[in-house]
Specification:
alpha/beta, TIM Barrel, 12-stranded mixed sheet, 11 helices, globular, binds S-adenosylmethionine, binds iron/sulfur cluster
């Protein structure tokens, strides 16, 4: 039986950052490990953290519960690949109580889809309603080339399982020049036929990716959108998700298409998010190096007082925005860690 949630009460007070942005959205990375090695995200020879450095599932629960107590209403579980973390359902099931109390409005996950066949029904039972699945191509060979280790059929079965479990699926697709440009319309049509929204993401300069070059991968979404508009009528939609994407509706299909454009259009002014890594580092901006540690505060006492103080102190230093910029022909504003470290 899926949990029944109470009608939404008024929003609790949230912490404001130095620019007056209310922090309502936590992205928690539950592992840095992954069963794929996507070319824009990781190098093939990644070194992962020793398991002992990771927060335990109980610590993840305490940490996220503290954020919920501070006015966070949306929790996205990410990674690495969140569904490869051992016993991760225990954590999702623990979060259900915050959905049932009405304090948490949305519990969601970003996944590469590889484990969804196993987990979709249990995620729905825990109260997850919508998930993001990353999918950059519909061509099995190309899928293998992009993810290095991924198996396309497994992800397709995962999508089937998610929809069969009643989960609303949004596809996340990284726009890759010369790689999936020719799939703009086939991906759009695939998503429309399956009743899925689709969000395109500009490739960001995060972490060393070995011999690959992000400038070669970068396909600006201004160009993608213009090409889409040659075939379809696009209607701008007001922001409704609290996330970084800006949406249009395609009149002909009715589906929503999102654009995450950190390079061509900075969206930092409305940022309501903070991120915590699987070791308890809090990053208040995806595109800056600055971070602080919550694990020591978490482990210093059984009471949450020190933890809450550390969270407030971190949010008080949230920067105005990132400095990503390819305009000078180089990876401007590049940061040293990979996206899989902070969670996408
Ligand atoms: N493994 C899960 C997945 O792939 O959905 C969750 C973590 S992954 C880091 C989250 C998202 O970040 C994915 O949609 C992925 O495509 C995206 N991503 C990874 N590296 C990126 C980069 N350098 N620029 C833009 N998006 C990136
Ligand atoms: Fe893994 Fe996601 Fe990074 Fe791909 S994008 S390597 S699936 S963490």
């Amino acid at each position: 039986m899926e949990p029944a949630f109470p009608p939404s009460p008024a929003l609790p007070p949230a912490i404001l950052d130095p620019f007056g942005r209310a922090i309502r959205y936590l992205r928690i990375s539950v592992t840095d490990r992954c069963d794929f090695r996507c070319v824009y995200c990781m190098s093939e020879a990644m070194e992962f953290l020793p398991k002992r450095d990771l927060l335990s599932l109980e610590e993840l629960d305490r940490l996220c519960s503290a954020f919920v107590g501070l006015g966070v209403t949306k929790l996205r579980v990410t990674g690495g690949e969140p569904l490869v973390r051992r016993n991760i359902l225990t954590f999702f099931n623990a979060m259900t109580r915050h959905l049932e109390s009405g304090a948490l409005r949305e519990l969601t996950v970003t996944t590469n889809g590889s484990q969804l066949e196993r987990f979709a029904a249990d995620l729905a039972a825990a109260g997850v309603r919508r998930i993001n699945v990353s999918l950059d191509t519909l061509d099995a060979g190309r899928f293998h080339a992009i993810t290095r280790w991924g198996r396309f059929d497994q992800v397709m079965r995962g999508l089937d399982a998610a929809q069969a479990a009643g989960l609303k699926v949004k596809l996340n697709t990284v726009a890759l020049k010369g790689v999936n440009e020719d799939e703009l319309f086939t991906l759009t049509e695939f998503a429309a036929a399956r009743g899925m929204d689709l969000t395109w993401i500009e490739v960001m300069p995060m972490g060393d990716i070995g011999n690959e070059n992000r400038l070669d991968q970068f396909w600006p979404l201004t160009a993608l959108r213009a090409r889409l508009a040659q075939r379809y009528s696009l209607v701008d939609l007001p922001d409704s998700t609290g996330g970084p994407a800006r949406y249009v509706r395609i009149e002909e299909t009715g589906q929503r298409i999102g654009f995450i454009t950190p390079l061509t259009h900075n969206f930092c002014e409305s940022c309501n998010r903070v991120r915590v890594t699987c070791t308890g580092e809090i990053y208040t901006c995806l595109g800056q190096e600055g971070h602080s540690d919550l694990r020591a505060a978490l482990r210093s006492s059984e009471s949450d007082e020190a933890l809450v103080t550390a969270i407030r102190a971190a949010i008080a230093t949230k920067p105005r925005g990132h400095d990503f910029d390819y305009a000078r022909g180089q990876e401007g504003g590049r940061i040293s860690r990979h996206m899989s470290h902070t969670g996408g």
